[in-house]
Design brief:
Jelly Rolls, mainly beta, seven-stranded antiparallel sheet, 254 residues, single chain, 6% helix
């Protein structure tokens, strides 16, 4: 699963008003970490409601990428739908795992149009609902949809197919994922300062098995307990992790 985490090829000036810089153990190279819900086995689809943070603005010299939340139904899926934040902008995008050269195949910027069309309010924040399902089990065709709150219907984002992945039996994920580098000026990851105040919610997470939608629970998925998640692993001392509903709703706050 780790090989699939790599996707993109690649401070605000205000500092934190919270006293002296907090020191995390320095590291070299890129630190990659993820935390969230992980279904135990391959499914035929997944659905969730994800919050977005339109005001996050990564500076041009920030090398980090935050994927939060990012949804991948199972090992046999062709599509991962991720919310990403990096120096070139913020978007909800479909990553095509079934292409000869996997990469982003559909990108929707998180702008005023996106917020007005595809989000509702969840916990006081804009949130979109995504569905990523296998539409043909023979050809292993998958389609990702976003719920359009202006038309009360599902809009197709992207479709892809490849039978070679049908043998994959492992589950997917809905998680908070970060690629970060050590910033010697702050003793943390570069993204940490620029996402202060952000909240990342993934709620009402479901998977489809045997044609039936099932909410994630402790019986069909795993989540590392928030008490055992290390801030140092994510390069950001301000992060807090919580699981309001096991395992269908996780939350990360900076």
């Amino acid at each position: 699963m780790g090989v699939q985490f790599r996707k993109l090829s690649e401070s605000r000036d205000a500092a934190r008003d919270n006293g002296p810089a907090r020191v995390l153990p320095p590291w070299t190279g890129e630190k990659h970490s993820g935390w969230g819900a992980f279904p135990y086995s391959a499914s035929e689809g997944a659905q969730a409601t994800h919050t977005v943070n339109p005001d996050i603005s990564m500076s041009p010299d920030n090398p980090d990428v935050v994927y939060a939340p990012t949804l991948d139904p199972s090992g046999k899926t062709c599509i991962e739908v991720t919310t990403y934040y990096w120096k070139y902008g913020n978007a909800v995008a479909a990553w095509d795992w079934c292409a000869a050269s996997p990469g982003f195949a559909a990108i929707i910027p998180i702008d005023t149009y996106f917020v007005n069309t595809y989000t509702t309010t969840f916990q006081g924040r804009p949130a979109y609902t995504v569905q990523d399902v296998q539409t043909n089990p023979v050809t292993n065709s998958w389609t990702a949809y976003l719920y359009n709150y202006t038309t009360s219907s599902w809009d197709t984002v992207f479709t892809s197919a490849n039978t070679s992945k049908l043998t994959e039996t492992h589950g997917g994920w809905d998680m908070f994922e970060v690629y970060t580098n050590y910033n010697p000026d702050t003793n943390e990851g570069y993204y940490c300062t620029e996402t202060v105040g952000a909240e990342f919610h993934a709620s009402n997470i479901k998977i489809r098995t045997g044609g039936t939608w099932n909410t994630l629970t402790t019986a069909n998925s795993s989540v590392t307990p928030p008490s055992s998640v290390s801030n140092a692993d994510f390069g950001c001392s301000g992060l807090t992790f919580s699981l309001p509903t096991a395992n269908s709703y996780w939350k990360v706050t900076n």
